[in-house]
Amino acid sequence: MMSFFLQRWLGACPWPRQDVAQAVERLIDQVDPKVRLLPRSEQQLQRGVRDTLRYAGELTSHLPEPLDFSVAGYSSDRRVGLLFASPDSLSRLLHDSQPLHDYFSRPANPDQAYVLLVMQAQTRQRLGSQLLPDGNVQNDVPQQVLSFAQHRIVAAYDSLPLLQHWAGMEAYNALCRDLARRVGQSDAYRQQLEAERQRVLLRLASSGQTLVNAGALRGGHDVKDADLPARLQALDAELALLAAGLSLPGKLDYLRQVVRQPQQHLNAALESACLDRMGVVTPEHDGGIRLDFGVLRLGQDEVRERVVFPARLSRQDVQQWRQRWPQGDN
To answer: Looking at residue 296, what DSSP letter applies?
Structure first.
């Protein structure tokens, strides 16, 4: 596979123009549809989005081998038991998955489906017990536990190559949602600063007067009266920067910067851990089960991680799960 930079230089892109155009629309809609009011906003993002899609497609090389989501696979594929607390939890995931339901509701689709599973990894420390070579048990041994939560099936396809192809688009969609979340956080922070600025102005206007509810004007920052002018100046400077970034031209410029350098905001890697059946990190020579998993990382300063797996199952597998662990309609 050609590297991202070589493909960019050659101009190669596996995505048709229509898919690229729709990806541009999706990015703008996620962050702020009003960006579309700016002249040539979509054209300014076109090349960067194409490059980002091409780069995101390379990240699919970090996907592990597909999980076996059949009923028998829960026992035979030991990785599945490490990812789910019980067969019932996997059955509930399959029952609640809209992409899986949509896939199998189309009679023309093959009986075999390949799904993209996304979840969060959680690491914690605890004190446990350990069996020593002489047969004695040692208590209060520090242990690291790796568990997985918030499982979601984000897409279903009829073949593994198709899943690998479209997984790049799913990574791009995750980037769009993350950018929208970050812009929303900046706007919420701006509102917080504006509220503080109003309190500072009220305190300055009431200087030397006795206020019944003066404590309410202090807010979260306990600024002394003598420091109010300096605080107001700092707030004005910070709000000016936020206003520029949250303006429509500022948002468009932010999106342009991100899609021009996607590797700074979107990364993936294939990582490994050896765990026992309780999720305790255990070396392989002590019975640990090797678990290879893809990790998708979003953002720069505040990095968010998602664990990604492909998995396979059939219509018959879904029926067997429903029969053995019925979930009901609610």
So the answer is: E
Query: Rounded to an integer, what distance in angstroms lies between the CA atom of residue 209 and that of residue 182?
Result: 41
CA–centroid distance for 95 within its chain: 22
Tokens of 179: 């950018």
Determine contact, residues 114/311, Cβ cutoff 8 Å: yes
80-112 pLDDT, tens digit per residue, is 999 999 999 999 999 999 999 999 999 999 999
pLDDT tens-digit series, residues 216-233: 555 555 778 889 999 999
Q: Helix, strand, or coil here: 164? A: helix
* DSSP notation for 97-149: -HHHHHHHT-TTS-SEEEEEEEEEEEEEEEEEEEE-TTS-EEEEEEEEEEEEE
Q: What is the pLDDT of residue 13?
A: 55
Percent of the chain's residues with pLDDT above 70: 88
Q: At what angle do helices 17-31 and 41-58 cross, to 10 degrees?
A: 110
Q: What is the pTM for the complete model shown?
A: 0.83
d(C-alpha 80, C-alpha 272), whole Å:
15
H or E element in which residue 273 lies: strand 266-275
Residue written as token pair 């979003």: 298
CB 275 within 8 A of CB 282: yes
